[in-house]
Amino acid sequence: MKAILTVIGKDNVGIIAGVSSKLAELDVNILDVTQTIMNGYFTMMMILDLSGATDSFGEIKKTLTDKGTELGVQIKIQREEIFTSMHSL
Amino acid sequence: METSQILETIRMIEEEKLDIRTITMGISLLDCIDGDGKKAREKIYNKITRQAEHLVKTGEAIENEFGIPIIHKRISVTPIALVAGASQDENYASFAQTLDKAAKTTGVNFVGGFSALVQKGYSVGDRRLIQSIPEALATTELVCSSVNVGSTRSGINMDAVKQMGQIVKQTAERTADQQGLGCAKLVIFANAVEDNPFMAGAFHGVGEEDCVINVGVSGPGVVKRALEKVKGQPFDVVAETIKKIAFKITRMGQLVGHEASTRLGVPFGIVDLSLAPTPAVGDSVAHILEEMGLESVGTHGTTAALALLNDAVKKGGVMACSHVGGLSGAFIPVSEDAGMIHAVERGALNLEKLEAMTAVCSVGLDMIAIPGDTPAETISAMIADEAAIGVINNKTTAVRVIPAPGKAVGETVEFGGLLGHAPIMNVNRKSSADFIARGGRIPAPIHSFKN
Q1: What span, in angstroms and rounded, lies between the C-alpha atoms of B104 and A57?
Q2: Is the pTM higher than 0.90?
């Protein structure tokens, strides 16, 4: 299963490191990353492959949300289809 | 996948309140018919709780994984008049109580289908069901009721129109302690559709499969925001913008419906691509019309604006999903739409203009509070007017009015939640009693010589 991770918040040291090390712990593979500063906000998007992960989607979501709180950013994870179905035929 | 597209989707959900309004499971109860009412109710309870056992859980899982809110999970059933008709019971309120119990067991928000189809005439079951409506709605919480009193093919059953005025009044009186809330769960239709996932008018038509998943999408806020970007531009641009955004909204409905149907092992019926407002800020159909350049919804030009909106929503949505159905278009309930409420409060929107708007919106006079002392005949006459608009123009129309007990123009009723609050609207005080007393049937319209 592929998912899109979005991280939005105030820029700080160690956001990418924090997020990606947590993903590694969860056995989630990162397929693509884009990151920019948009209107002064740190904005990162990752395409993830969850097929190797043992935790359920709900558990992964909870772990990442908690990590986001710790890093002071908002982390969302949603299945890829919600974006592809809206923007492509 | 482009970053801007990902952010657009997230913004639509978070800021513009794009949501899946409902996943509605339609369940046929035709195989629950029994000569013994008690046995029939047992079968109904068992079938609903079996079929919909995982509905709420599945809806929540989809919501969680895709990150799109699914506001309601609902059930619609075969019109109970057809199911209960075989039993010897005189009062069908107990059937409504069974539906209520089944709804609570499965955890859904509403169950629709305490319904009768009497567009041409009454069967014994229809008569008993309609008489049971006030008690049924007063003794249940989650049951919704609807009665179809007219169709383009068969005309308008004026006996039913007359009776429904009285039933609306009785329902209000039976639920007077909740300001007539029972009436918010009662819709009187012309040209009712069989696959509507929206309440209070949902029922599972006899032409449908045994069990089916229908989805209703919403998102007036998304349309409003898109129109903000084309301020002052010609209507060609407005229509194109609405079509594009309706396409995107409907794609969400298709995805969620497909996913729910696969997980539940139930066929996927239709997506109803309706713009259904809620009282929340930024979730108003009225504000879309105002964004087109009207100072207030209700002023001259409102009908044209609504016609464009309703049509563009359908056009944008049809290509986005495999089957479109239900009511598809723009709803214009008063109490559920912050912009409509505001327009009534500042005297810009009246019942007559709302009636004109129903000729081009997706349904009809919806969630309108009227004075508690409005005569039953006047309510019947409103139903007749709406039915006439629907029957002649080949569209679904409906009436859901609340004659709020003890309340007069200038006061407000508060229903809470998605039902919102409603200022009491002025009703024409001239009598329609002799007109309604006639009864009988208004013949079906001719389908040629259209003008």
Answers
A1: 28
A2: yes
